[in-house]
DNA sequence: GAACAAAACCGAAACGTTTCGGTTTTAAAG
DNA sequence: CTTTAAAACCGAAACGTTTCGGTTTTGTTC
């Protein structure tokens, strides 16, 4: 049905190789250029990327594997990455593995079969082995947000430890001592780093670290609700909580809301990620923000770089991006209240 | 590098066609089956989907074109659709056109070049012409959430009019008369239907329709903020507002929050979509919900159906799914208050 | 206008499958 | 054991490109 390169050759009286050369940016005599363009126009020719892919062994498509599309953090990153990739002619094959290690593995197989040129991935399981197969096939892999043990490839990370340290410091500065954290799953890279940041901040301020103040959630809304309830039950003197991702922040707010706990009068809260949600909350939430757009952009750019230098070997880049902080009214400033109290006397 | 079907043929002593037949589910003698499977195992053979695609003229991939990945409504639909498609072996090539008609057109071209087998799309511009090219190529198109004028293809819609009518009725039943609406862009199909539902509900209750009570936003957070401000300025007697999508609901809440308007004491609000957000708001928001999972699932299933019957002709299906309503505390029940008042006397 | 280098052009072969039409093998029936 | 229908098997050709090595054309210089 659709016209092929052969049709264009026939129509113009030129050779196959010439048309191909033209299509790939080669030089062609002016009059031939005109003839070719005319024929393409008339016959509605469009190069068949599939055939091209077979011949060149490059599909110009990138596999994107993420734990959850329906997650604002992932979605923002992917949006940006997809745009950067497509602008360079690369298609994004997106697979959502629902934070399930088994599905993640399946998806990697799937993408390998489809012969994508590279893999952009926010890991959720410990799938080092599967990912290795990409590297063995000399196809670049860029990891986002999380490293995978024993896997040497480019990655774009965030300064999780620093971010949490900074947030906890703000709580300490405001006079809080009984600071809880809703951390993520134990095996999760970001969760480990964030918890570590929490411990470091407390240690530096010489505040004893209590197990009862550290509760783990599973990065879901429901998990956040449960963790917050647990934290409150276990610690009658709880004065502030840091919640270490967006979904759990949402869950925490819902739970506090349902328990009738006032923010920040009865409990101070610092959340994570979603600026708009923070702004729409009552009171406005103070949150740690991650540079999602930049993460996506950098990851895609790293991928493109590897793709064009087409050497998967060489020193791998480990980017570490800075987080931000958006101030709200969800943290009670005990220090200030005390000093006001004192001046009053 | 990677093993091909030829290598398997050589290793097993069987013919090319036999291997191909085996790979495609054909019958093979038991002993040969074993030999083939062994050879596949040993040589790490994986069928090359690109070559297969060239030969069969089917890439087993579906283009998914949406206005904004980073939008919970879209993301939920796509998550579901992608899962259904992939389970049947179809890859999803996702393109985000940022609600931009020009980019949307580009993306359609892009997907056509990639020879996707079909197009799943939440339209944002009036790109009938571009989409036609898919149909001309005998490739199925399934529209989601919006129709496109003069384009006859399957679509999965939502009962927008009914949803808004129902929501407005609830406001009326609660005793509200000065009901505003923050509607979507004029050219938007869903926006038209929703506005129409609003008008019908008012008309039926014999409440005069006032222009000042109908404000349009652009379906963004910022647009919602602006629209809410306008609505309040224009209508001093405003008693309730219906906001017709999630982003604008978020914007409205932010704006009310910043203006210090109390919900529902000073203003009643009904929002759209995001259940979790509604639950986390203070007070809990009453919202209209859309069956996003079902939309995604149905759309993907419709696509698969068309794909396997491989006749794009025939009667097109127009599915119309029911919306839901989640009750919160953001609507003041004036009627009830009045009757309480009366019994008190 | 002859000589020459550079630029443009050319067709065949190859990429890894599926499919067509035909041949061989199997096993059931006589 | 022979016949026969069905099942299994087979290789060549084709899908639409790119690329290799080689040929022709162009235009500059003498």
Task: Describe this structure as you would to a colleague.
The structure is a homodimer of 345-residue chains. The first copy, chain A, is an alpha/beta fold and 345 residues long. The first copy, chain A, folds into 3 domains: 5-47, no CATH class; 59-157 and 292-321, Response regulator (Rossmann fold, 3-Layer(aba) Sandwich); 160-291 and 326-344, Rossmann fold (3-Layer(aba) Sandwich), CATH 3.40.50. The first copy, chain A, is built from 14 helices and 12 strands. In chain A, the strands form 2 sheets. Chain A has a 6-stranded parallel beta sheet, sandwiched between helices. Chain A has a 6-stranded mixed beta sheet with strand order 7-6-8-9-10-12, sandwiched between helices. In chain A, strand 3 (118-121), helix 7 and strand 4 (141-144) form a beta-alpha-beta unit. The model of chain A has no long low-confidence stretch (mean pLDDT 93). At the A-B interface, helix 4, helix 5, strand 2, helix 6 and helix 11 of A face helix 4, helix 5, strand 2, helix 6 and helix 11 of B. Chain A binds a DNA duplex (30 and 30 nucleotides) through helix 2 and helix 4.
